[in-house]
Amino acid sequence: MPAPTPDLKVDEVLPPAQINPIAAKLAASADPGDRATARILAKYLDELLRLPGTNVRIGLDPILALFPGVGDTVASGAGLIILIEALRSGVSIPVFLRMTLNMGANFLLGLIPGAGALASIFFKSNSRNLHLLHTWQAGHSAKVERSTLRFYLGLLILAGMVATFIIVGWAFYAWLFYSAVQAVLHALGMR
Prior knowledge:
The protein is mainly alpha-helical. It has 2 domains: 1-139, no CATH class; 141-191. It contains 9 helices and 2 strands, in the order αααββαααααα. It has a two-stranded antiparallel ribbon with strand order 1-2. The longest helix is centred in the last third of the chain and has 47 residues, at 141-187. The protein is elongated, with a radius of gyration of 24 Å. This is DUF4112 domain-containing protein. The chain crosses the membrane at residues 63-84, 104-123, 151-178. InterPro entries: DUF4112. Keywords: Membrane, Transmembrane, Transmembrane helix.
């Protein structure tokens, strides 16, 4: 007969040995939200260290973003745990897609060498997703739904502006090509 196992809860975050004071502080916190895996990950990925002389905090995400592709993949993989926690919390599909878009945007920004790491410092997709998750878990789902609606409306406006820019650009280049062909034909005396 197997030996009895200690009482462990599913998905319980066990405090690490006193290797990292931030992890120990989060694990010892009385606030259950601070002990959640999602909170610890967001802290490590987005706000681990404060840049000296500023109030800007960085985490492992912008540091890993210095290695395009590989670093972003690792950071996004860790950020997926926040998305899994959101699914467990029962967030709506639009909110989950918004969280996924945050992660995707951070991943794509991180692929830009150098600038991706800088963008990662300020975008902080994991902290954004954690805020959405905590607001949802606190029972303010209507507030999250409204902000998500505004988010999608902003994306729609941005997509419309990009599409308009592309259409106007193509029209301009078509006009420019047509004018160049007309000038060449006129110069050759064919017109």
